[in-house]
């Protein structure tokens, strides 16, 4: 015989005082991030929250938010989320990268395609993976560097998107080597020119140093 339902009055139900704010922040994060799999993303969100780890949350809403596909693929905002979660490690286990990638609802085949661009073992140097991710987003080498500057900069959104010359040089040299169509002479000449420009800005590279103004807002 089934047990009778237990009835509670309002005075018996205790709501943790922090719960409303937790749910409010979660809802705002979900709206900003627009996860492809809400339940999977929610599990990752609360797991990171409980461990004090960086949350899988975009800084702002990316448009368009509707693509008609379940797995819409990597975006600048999602790559920046991964950067916040994994960059501090330097070297990242492929298994952990796969886990973070899955939490964001990104297609596995896209991750495999990125990893196949270089010869990685069980670990990947994060900055190299970031560079490859930017190449997927940017298409051309200079457009990829623009993506990298916008992800790595500490400038406010809409600012100069400055990054240190050393970081720019590392990423450019790596992507040029992957591309294989740019000679060492051309690479060195380009970086020498960028270095001269960055020296006038306290060693920081600006997007306008390597992209025509008309392409900066493309």
- Parts with pLDDT < 50 across at least 5 consecutive residues: 65-69, 213-218
Mean pLDDT: 89
Q: What share of the residues does DSSP label as strand, in percent?
A: under 5%
Q: Based on DSSP secondary structure assignment, what is the total number of beta strands?
A: 4
What oligomeric arrangement do these chains adopt?
Answer: single chain
Secondary-structure content class: mainly alpha
End-to-end separation in angstroms reads 68 Å
Give the proportion of residues in helices.
40-55%
The SSE order reads: HHHEHHEHHEHHEH
Radius of gyration: 22 Å
Q: Provide a count of the helices.
A: 10
Largest β-sheet summary = 2 strands, antiparallel
3D architecture notes:
Helix 6 packs across helix 7, helix 6 packs across helix 8 and helix 7 packs antiparallel against helix 8. It contains ten helices and four strands, in the order αααβααβααβααβα. Helix content is 54%, strand content 5%. By secondary structure, it is mainly α. The strands form two sheets. A two-stranded antiparallel sheet has the order 1-2. Strands 3-4 form a two-stranded antiparallel sheet.
């Amino acid at each position: 015989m089934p047990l009778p339902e237990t009835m509670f009055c309002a005075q018996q139900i205790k709501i943790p005082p922090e719960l409303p704010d937790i749910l409010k922040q979660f809802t705002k994060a979900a709206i900003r991030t627009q996860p492809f799999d809400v339940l999977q993303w929610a599990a990752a969100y609360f797991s990171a929250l409980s461990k004090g780890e960086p949350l899988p949350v975009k800084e702002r809403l990316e448009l368009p938010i509707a693509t008609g596909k379940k797995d819409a693929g990597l975006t600048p905002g999602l790559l920046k989320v991964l950067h916040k979660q994994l960059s501090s490690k330097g070297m990242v286990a492929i298994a952990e990268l796969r886990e973070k990638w899955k939490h964001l609802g990104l297609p596995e085949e896209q991750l495999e395609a990125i990893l196949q661009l270089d010869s990685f073992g069980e670990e990947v140097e994060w900055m190299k993976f970031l560079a490859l991710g930017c190449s997927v987003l940017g298409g051309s080498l200079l457009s990829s560097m623009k993506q990298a500057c916008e992800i790595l900069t500490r400038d406010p959104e809409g600012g100069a998107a400055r990054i240190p010359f050393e970081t720019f040089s590392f990423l450019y040299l790596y992507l040029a080597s992957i591309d294989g169509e740019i000679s060492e002479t051309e690479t060195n000449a380009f970086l020498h020119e960028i270095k001269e420009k960055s020296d006038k800005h306290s060693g920081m590279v600006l997007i306008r140093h390597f992209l025509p103004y008309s392409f900066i807002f493309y």
